[in-house]
Amino acid sequence: MKTFKDQLGTSHSFATTPKRIISLVPSQTELLYDLGLEESIVGITKFCVHPNHFKNTKKSVGGTKKVHFEKIRLLQPDVIIANKEENTKEIVEELSKICTVWVTDIVTIEDNLQMISDFGVLFNKRVEAQKWIDKINFAIAEFKEFSKEYPIQKTAYFIWANPYMVAGSPTFINVLMALNKFENMYANQLDRYPEINLQKMPEEGNPTLVLLSSEPFPFKEEQAIAIQQVLPQVKIIFVDGEMFSWYGSRLVKAMNYFKKMQEVIN
Questions:
Q1: What is the DSSP pairing of strand 165-166 with strand 153-160?
Q2: Which residues pair with 67 in a beta bridge?
Q3: Three-state DSSP state, 111
Q4: Are 133 and 9 within one domain?
Q5: The pTM is what?
Q6: Which pLDDT tens digit goes with each residue over 132-180?
Q7: CA distances from 256 to 73, 147, 156 (A)
Q8: What is the pLDDT of residues 73-112, one digit of tens each?
Q9: CATH number (domain holding residue 166)
Q10: How many angstroms separate the first and last alpha carbons of the chain?
Q11: Beta-carbon contacts of residue 194 (< 8 Å; ≥ 6 apart)
């Protein structure tokens, strides 16, 4: 029997390496696949869109906030991978009656690397995990060198409309904004994703850059126009939300995306 601790500090004991995995977080599903665990993944959420073929080969067990407990039970998992932000405490507690629920908690890049290392140990994929850790560290170092001359820009990152909501702190989005030299004008907010009043933006910080995410709300031109009317001088960019909010192995792709985005902005 081996005992491990997840990122909430909860101890979990396993007699053998878990072979049947259910993932309730899209970015962690992608990571598990990249670690070579495709055959072990038996259940995913309807939002787990990478890799694309999983929608045809893996059983959907619902969303991240609403899961189908009976479907999960019938899949006879050895472990369920959840996340503190994505999945509610109530869901985790209910799922714990079925099998072990491993909960991750990702705010920083260091948290992300720890998650990958933890999965390497838990699923006996240490070599694969270290390869991804090395890839991510290299990609981040390369991006920092690439962007070192770019100026800091006061920025607001929108995640929702009607009501308008932005990324605050502490969030993984805020960390990746800082990496891009985007000074988050809402980083001092107590809420992770505070609701804001567009009309008050000029007095609250008057950003030079606004980023409109593709998820969870798919921003369109109509929202950009509404924001431009309040902030006529601001530069507005539509961005891929997966690159700013997905953790795991996605960070390697994110750094390449950020290079192209920075060239557009600067």
A1: antiparallel
A2: 62
A3: helix
A4: yes
A5: 0.96
A6: 999 999 999 999 999 999 999 999 999 999 999 999 998 999 999 999 9
A7: 39, 12, 22
A8: 999 999 999 999 999 999 999 999 999 999 999 999 999 9
A9: 3.40.50.1980
A10: 54
A11: 165, 166, 168, 186
